[in-house]
Design brief:
13 strands; 6 helices; single chain; 31% helix; 33% strand; alpha/beta; two-stranded antiparallel ribbon; 209 residues
């Protein structure tokens, strides 16, 4: 059974407060999500394997350590997940980026897939699914299922805010997937919005309604 890892670094929590604030405009909201994603990426990649190497400094030979060939794939769930990609790429610029397009049917609240484009070597990469909100967990669980059907062997889920209902669903369907989140909120309302949450992340990122 995998874990839920709450990332409570002071800088993450500080910035998350302003992300939640309804008075934060789209420009500032995008910048804050980008920054928090980079901070979170440090924790998500903490267990990457290292290997020893030798390098020549200007004065001598030094022992160093580099990531041991582990390849990463970042998979945003469209559209809100796009807001977390650039922050991750600043930390790991060699990572490949795939996209999974899902929307929630307004009547059934179930995810419907409309787009998928993945790196060709999915089975050789550690795949990081990113989405700001883990609400019902339907979209995240569906995206993970789809990645597994394409051969993904190692998957993690990274989100800003999670609801207990979403965590339960993802772990019931995918007990092998770790969830990294900056906050676990109280519950979902009747419209499947996280309470207290931050509203609709996609609308706030892109200035839509």
């Amino acid at each position: 059974m995998r874990q839920v890892k709450l990332l409570d670094h002071p800088m993450i929590q500080h910035k998350l407060t302003f992300i939640r604030d309804k008075n934060t405009g789209s420009k500032e909201f995008r910048e804050l999500v980008d920054e928090v994603a980079m901070f979170m990426a440090y924790e998500v990649t903490r267990d990457l394997p290292l290997e020893d190497v030798l390098v020549e400094t200007p004065v001598a030979t030094a022992k160093g350590r580099v990531i041991a060939g582990k390849k990463l794939g970042i998979i945003p769930i469209l559209r809100a997940g796009l807001g977390m990609v650039n922050g991750f790429l600043r930390l790991v610029p060699a990572a490949k980026v795939g996209h999974i397009g899902l929307y929630r049917d307004p009547n059934t609240l179930q995810p419907v897939e409309y787009y998928c484009k993945l790196p060709p070597d999915v089975e050789d990469r550690e795949m990081i699914v990113v989405d700001p909100m883990l609400a019902t967990g339907g979209s995240a669980a569906a995206a993970i299922t789809f990645l597994k059907s394409k051969g993904a062997q190692s998957i993690k889920l990274m989100c800003l805010i999670a609801a207990p209902e979403g965590i339960e669903r993802v772990h019931s369907e995918h007990p092998d997937v770790d969830i990294f989140t900056a906050a676990i909120d109280d519950c979902l309302n009747d419209h499947a919005y996280i309470i207290p949450g931050l509203g609709d992340a996609g609308d706030r990122l892109f200035g839509t309604r």
